[in-house]
Automatic annotation (TrEMBL):
Coiled coil: none annotated. InterPro entries: Calcineurin-like_PHP, Metallo-depent_PP-like, UPF0046_metallophosphoest. GO terms for molecular function: hydrolase activity. Belongs to the UPF0046 family. This is Calcineurin-like phosphoesterase domain-containing protein. CDD domains: MPP_239FB. Transmembrane segments: none annotated. It comes from Ovis ammon polii. Residues 90-306 form the Calcineurin-like phosphoesterase domain.
Amino acid sequence: MYILQFKEESPPPPCEIEKQRIVPTASTLELQQGFNGATWLILTISFLVAVKLGVSSILAEKFLFVSALLKHLGVDPIPYDTPKPAGHTRFVCISDTHSRTDGIQMPYGDILLHTGDFTELGLPSEVKKFNDWLGNLPYEYKIVIAGNHELTFDKEFMADLVKQDYYRFPSVSKLKPEDFDNVQSLLTNSIYLQDSEVTVKGFRIYGAPWYPVFCSLNHYSPSALESRTRTPWFNGWGFNLPRGQSLLDKWNLIPEGIDILMTHGPPLGFRDWVPKELQRVGCVELLNTVQRRVRPKLHVFGGIHEGYGIMTDGYTTYINASTCTVSFQPTNPPIIFDLPNPQGS
C-alpha cells in the first residue's frame, strides 16, 4: 500500500491543442470498438507471457504500468504510514463500497473522496446506513458522487422505471416517488456532487456520475445506440448513457482549471480493462475531455472493480479506487495522495 506525494508543482507544459469543446467524430463508436479489440492485444499477450514465465499477476501488471508512474514528474510512491508533510493536504480515495463498509480500515487523511456505488441499489435505507458510516469518520471534508448502482439518485431513470411492467429488482420498483424524491438530502455528512463543483481547502473538485452503457457494443448496433439519449432498458442501471454525443454533453459541463475530477467510471485506456469481457470499457469522450481540455492534476474514479490501481499519462494521474473486488469483497485498500496546499489557502 502506498501514498502518492506530490511535490511543489512546476508550471504545466503547454497544451498543443487549442482549448475548445471536444466535438466527437462520426467514428467515435468505431474507435471504441477498435480499442476493445486488436489494439490491446499486445498488452494482453505481454501480460500472459509474464504470468507464464512464473511472474505473479501483480508483478506482471507492474511491468505494464509502474514505469509510467515513475516517469510522472514530482510523484513518488512512499510507504503507507509516512506522516503527511507540512503544507500538504492528504486525500483518501475509495469507491464501489456497495454497502460493505463495516470491515474497511480507513487511514488518516483530511479529505475523503468517494466516487460512487456506495450502495447496492440506492435504496433509502442503504443511503442512510452509508451516511451514518460517513458520520463516524474523522475527515474534515467528505465528498461523494453517485454511481450506476445509486438508482434512486437518477431521477430520469426512476421516472421511466415507474412506467415499466417489470424490473429485475422488486425492492426498487416498489418504491413510491415520495420515497426517493429527496434521497440526496439523506447525505447529511458529506458534500454530494452531481455535475457540480466545490472548492475545499483551496482545491477545486468537480464530480459527475455518468457512465457508458456497460459492454453494450456486444449487443447493440451503433445506429441503435445513437438513437437513444438515455438507456432505460430495464435490465440496466442508473446514470447510463450511450457513448458519443450524449456522454460528451455531460463532460462538456466540466470546467477548465479544476484540480481533481471525480467520475464514476474510467476514461478509455486507464484502469478500465475487464478480463471477462476481453474489453476496455472506459469512455473515449471522457478521455478526450480530460487530456485535451480539462487536464486536471488527478482523475479519481471507480466502476470497474478489476481496474483498481494507479496510472498516469505524464500529466494527469488516474486513480481507480474501487474498494470491492470483482467478487464484491471490500479488500482493496484506500488510495492516498498528498497535494501541496494552494497558495493563499
